[in-house]
Write a structure and sequence with these properties.
Number of strands: 4
Number of domains: 1
CATH architecture: 2-Layer Sandwich
Largest sheet: 4 strands, mixed
Order of helices and strands: HEHEHEE
Strand content: 15-25%
CATH superfamily: YhbY-like
Shape: globular
CATH class: Alpha Beta
Helix content: 40-55%
Distance between the termini: 12 Å
Strand order of the largest sheet: 1-2-4-3
Length: 96
């Protein structure tokens, strides 16, 4: 699902005040972290993930892994924080 720029802008506005729910340590995106991210997306639809990593490439790879494994869309990436969105299939809470 590709988001338009207008939809991304709306989601960034909604995600501005959110606190990071998913915290990824130095070990990266383990199966447990992916499972928790999947549950958070199912419940909230829009979540922030904070990734601790040595360099930008490592952080980007972890965010891409989380998005791919959960079927989410990366809305925004700033430094160590990424905003992920996945529409709930039955009861969407966020209208984009």
């Amino acid at each position: 699902m590709a988001l338009s720029e207008k939809q991304r802008k709306h989601l960034r506005r909604l995600g501005h005040d959110l606190k990071p729910i998913i915290l990824v340590g130095e070990a990266g995106a383990s199966e447990g972290v992916i499972r928790e991210c999947d549950l958070a997306l199912e419940h909230h639809e829009l979540v922030k993930a904070k990734v601790h990593g040595a360099d930008r490439q490592t952080r980007d790879a972890v965010v891409d892994t989380l998005a791919e494994a959960t079927g989410a869309e990366v809305v925004q990436r700033i430094g160590h924080v990424a905003l992920l969105y996945r529409r709930h299939p039955e009861k969407p809470r966020i209208v984009v």
